[in-house]
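Async update (no meeting this week)

Hi team, since we skipped the sync, here's where things stand on the single-chain job. The sequence we agreed to prioritize is pasted below, unchanged from the tracker. I ran it this morning and attached the output directly underneath so nobody has to dig for it. Comments welcome in thread, and please keep replies under the output.
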Amino acid sequence: MNRSEGRPGQSEGRKRRVVVFGTYDLDAHPRARVLIEGMRAHGVVVVECNAALGLDTAGRVGVLTRPALLPLVAGRVLWRWTELLWRSRGVGRPEAVLVPYLGHFDVHLARLRFPSTPRILDHLVSGLDTARDRRLGGGWRDRALGLVDRAALRAATVVVVDTDEHLEQLHPAARRRALVVPVGAPDSWAVAPGPLYAGDRPLRVVFFGRYTPLQGAVTIGRALSLLAANPSVQVTMIGDGQDRAEARRVAGANPNVTWHGPVPPTQLPAVVAAHDVCLGVFGTGPKALRVVPNKVFQGVRAGCAIVTSDTAPQRRVLGDVPVYVPPGDATELAAQLSSLAGQPERVRAAQERSRRSGPQLTPSVVTAPLMQTMGWSADR
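Output:
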C-alpha cells in the first residue's frame, strides 16, 4: 500500500482520500498511472491497494479462444482478490474508490468491500470492443462480453472513458454517470527532448506498441516496404504482439529499419525522445477511429513530431499538432515520411508544436474533469 503525502501545508483531516483498488498493472497500462498522478497533483491523498493479475489485455482476451484456460485465470483472479482484501484492511472509509482499466470484475469486489463508497470505474475500453478489434468477436463471445461490460457499468457510480466517441457508445443509463478524461501521459514522459531536426542526417522515426490491429502495424510495415530505397528515413520498431510478424513480413528487406522487442517502461521515454518522429496509430477498425492512443500523448510529451491517422477524436484533442494521414493508407504514410526527411523545417515545426502542447497533456490537466465531477475542484 502506497500513500501520497498530498500538498504541503494541508492537514491530513482536510484532504480528499481515494483508494485505487484492483488487479491493474502500472507498467503495462500507464493510464492508471496518469489518473493516480493527476489526483495527487490536485491534492488528493491516494492509497493504492493493488495485486497485479499478471495478464495483459491480450492474455485476458485470449481466454476467449482457449476456454480451457478459464479455470486457471479464474483461480488467479480469486488469489489476487484475496490479496486485495488483505491489503485493504485499515484503509478506513475513503471519499471514493477508483477501479482502473481492465477492472470489469474488480469493480464488483470493490462494491462488496466498499458498499457505501462511490466507485469510479475507468472504462477505457469495453471487453466487447477489444475482442472485436483483435478479431476474436462473434457469437457467444459477443454475448458474454456484452454481459460483462453491462454488469461492470452497473456496479460503478461514476464511469470514466477517454473520448466523446466512447462516451456515445455507452448505454444511456451509464452515459448519464459518465465523463471523458483523455488518456494523457505520465510525468515520466516529460523527458529532455532531442535536438530539433536540422536535416544533416537521416530522419529518425520510432514506433512502439503491442502491435494490435488498432495500431495499424501492418500499414506501417507496408509503408516501410515503400521506403526501402530511401536511406534518409531510418525507422525503429519497438515492441511485440499480435501483428508484429505480419508487419515485419510485409516490410520486406528494408535495410533502414531496426526491429526491437519491448523496452522497459523506465527506459522507453528517453528512447522515444531520441527520435525526431513518433508514429501514432493507423488502424481502420471502428475502435481505431474512436481513440486518441496513449502513444500519441507520450510522443507529444517526449517532444517528437507526431505522424498519426486523421480521425475525428485525434483532430479534436490534438488540433494541428500532428501530421495526419488517412487511416490505413500506407502509400500516404510513406510519402509523408519521405517528404519530412526532405523538409527539415516541417519536422522542426511539428516538434515545436509538440513541445508547446505537452504541458496541456499532463495528468493534472487531463484529470481536471474528474475533479469537477467529484466536486473536488476546490482542493486544487
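Quick observations from my side:
Residues 70-87 form the longest helix (18 residues).
Residues 12-184+363-379 form a domain with the Rossmann fold fold (CATH 3.40.50.2000).
Reply here if anything looks off.
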